[in-house]
Design goal:
heterodimer, A: mainly alpha, B: alpha+beta, five-stranded antiparallel sheet
Chain lengths: 182, 417
């Protein structure tokens, strides 16, 4: 019962349902906007980009909410679309143009230093390792779930996570050293 | 990795996940506003072309004011003050201009008409004069003197939309013995598309001039496919629906219509003037009332959900589809063979593929509904919904006549007595 809407690219195929969700779009948005933005921030190291990608994904979700609401985990669909938006420069630009005027920067102070440090360290990692780390540690998905979503074997995900964690530890060491020498 | 490093990483992620929201949520209404804007833009582009209607006769008049071929000393306001040393000028095929065409001797001045055959490659690297684009596109699609490179033109690098040269054909539209160029220009982005077909010619200096607009997406033309030459006319493939983004593939009807140059502008001279009613667009509706469930055996309450589906016409619906959504714990206790259940967290839905329904016909669907009394005790009342359209499985349904979608959904209550 999965659908592939006209106008979507193959990269936006709907992932299999995996968890919980809400039935009112407002509830669904309220429950998922912040966790998803945080996940996208970990992936992009740019709070505005993360916000626009997530908002874009919610905009598309609203367009087909009648169907999406029937999935066990519509949030997984939104995350999948948001990651695709963030990964593609053209879609990023388009999302920024569409959603920038709705930014409410004055309301929150933005990411704190700990979040900035981790996001920056993640930004230096190869894309697949970064994606796996974000899905595992920030989105709290299991290895099998990530493997299913990425279309690879569980062993591959483990290897991405292993190498990613090593690289991330080294990157965090470097940033700590830099701070000490400033 | 050392245990210390591992713990440090886990701590870093835990800190990352906890704490304040990262940004202020723009909100559902902001997402809905963007969705509405996009949808509105897609819908209105077909109808709003006032700017073009105004601009086109001006262009046509300017070009018409030039003698054909223009005397070498004369320059229309459209041509640059000096001969264009651009690919458009260098793209003239010397052998073709030298040979000319036998009919060219018949022109009033006895001189050879300029060769207006411009290749797609040359057109895509030339500066073209284009009238303003319709509302929704005007801010993103360049107009005026537009410089193309590699077949594309864009206002700026970050612009959401850009123009590209589509089909290019050569037709002697003005009967001067030399062919002109008709080209489709597509201004589009991810979700927005506007297609216009223009005719271009060369003036006596070899510069490319815009003759006029052949046709574009407006009125009943929701999309333009290919173009091809047909005698002295430009034949254009037109569609009555723009598929994608919610409009099911296979919806659109295709026609070939022709436009010819009357000396001032292009007018339609061939093909149908309009589309017949689309055979897949019909007005479907569904209605249903509340359902009373009464105690049945084995701790269940049971009742019958009665839905009446109608085809109000004008077309026969070949694949009518009914989607019934029951909140948990209500289920259809005996699922008909033509319905497929789908269980999600909060509800069970049934996609029922019905047999064809003729225009004017109605059918009553009765579904036995039950719920355990343990989780739906007497007094329970929850809302079900039923949607009726023409489509297959989970694909988008075919569109309906404008303004008739409101009755495609019925709601009622499941009431446990």
């Amino acid at each position: 019962m999965r659908q592939h809407h006209p106008g979507e690219t193959d990269a936006e195929l709907v992932p299999p349902p995996t968890g919980g969700g809400g039935d009112s779009f407002e509830d669904f948005y309220a429950a998922n906007f912040h966790p998803l933005t945080l996940q996208l921030y970990a992936y992009t190291a740019d709070a505005n980009q993360a916000q626009d990608a997530v908002q874009e994904a919610f905009t598309r979700a609203w367009q087909r909410w009648d169907r999406l609401v029937r999935y066990d985990n519509p949030a997984a669909w939104v995350r999948h679309v948001a990651l695709n938006v963030a990964r593609n420069r053209w879609r990023r630009l388009r999302a920024a143009r569409a959603h920038a005027r709705f930014h409410r920067d004055e309301v929150v102070a933005g990411p704190g230093p700990d979040r900035v440090a981790l996001a920056r360290a993640l930004a230096g990692l190869p894309e697949r390792q970064r994606r796996a780390l974000v899905l595992f540690h920030v989105a709290d998905l299991g290895i099998e779930e990530i493997a299913g979503q990425e279309g690879v074997a569980a062993g591959t995900v483990k290897s991405w996570l292993h190498r990613g964690r090593q690289a991330l530890a080294a990157a965090l060491d470097d940033s700590t050293m830099e701070e000490r020498h400033v | 990795m050392s245990e210390f490093d591992a713990r440090r990483l886990d701590d870093a992620f835990a800190t990352f996940r906890s704490g304040e929201p990262l940004v202020a949520a723009p909100g559902v209404s902001a997402a809905q506003a963007v969705h509405r804007r996009r949808r509105t833009t897609r819908i209105v582009v077909a109808g709003v072309a006032a700017a073009v209607l105004v601009a086109t006769p001006v262009l046509a008049a300017q070009r018409h004011a030039d003698p054909v071929p223009p005397p070498p000393a004369t320059q229309s306001p459209d041509t640059p003050p000096t001969p264009v040393p651009s690919p458009s000028a260098s793209g003239v095929n010397p052998s073709a201009s030298a040979t000319g065409s036998p009919q060219a001797t018949g022109s009033p001045t006895g001189t050879t008409a300029p060769d207006g055959q411009i290749s797609k490659q040359v057109l895509g690297n030339a500066t073209l004069r284009l009238p303003g684009w319709p509302e929704g596109f005007a801010g993103e699609c360049p107009s005026g003197r537009v410089r193309f490179a590699d077949g594309k033109a864009q206002l700026s690098v970050g612009s959401e939309l850009s123009i590209r040269i589509g089909d290019v054909v050569h037709v002697d539209v003005d009967d001067d013995g030399a062919k002109e160029t008709a080209a489709s220009l597509v201004c589009s982005g991810v979700e927005m598309t506007h297609v216009r077909v223009f005719a271009f010619d060369r003036d006596g200096t070899g510069s490319i001039v815009t003759m006029g607009l052949v046709t574009e997406m407006k009125g009943d033309i929701a999309f333009i496919g290919a173009i091809r030459p047909q005698g002295r006319a430009v034949q254009v493939e037109v569609l009555d629906y723009l598929e994608g983004e919610g409009v099911a593939g296979g919806t659109a009807q295709h026609q070939w219509r022709s436009w010819s140059w009357n000396g001032k502008r292009f007018t339609q001279t061939g093909g149908p003037a309009s589309f017949p009613p689309n055979p897949r667009v019909t007005d479907l509706s569904v209605s249903g009332g509340d359902v009373q469930l009464t105690p049945a055996d084995a701790g269940q309450s049971a009742g019958t959900l009665t839905l009446v589906v109608r085809n109000k016409g004008p077309q026969r619906a070949e694949q009518p589809r009914l989607l019934v959504r029951l909140p948990k714990p209500f289920v259809v206790s005996s699922v008909p063979s033509y319905c497929t259940p789908f269980v999600s967290r909060a509800e069970t839905s049934y996609t029922c593929q019905l047999s064809p329904l003729s225009a004017g016909a109605e059918r009553t669907i009765r579904l036995p509904v039950s719920a355990p009394r343990s989780s739906a005790p007497a007094g329970t009342s929850v809302e079900y919904s039923a949607e009726f359209d023409w489509g297959v499985g989970d694909t988008p349904g075919f569109p309906e006549p404008a303004g008739t979608k409101a009755d495609n959904r019925a709601r009622g209550n499941l009431v446990v007595g």
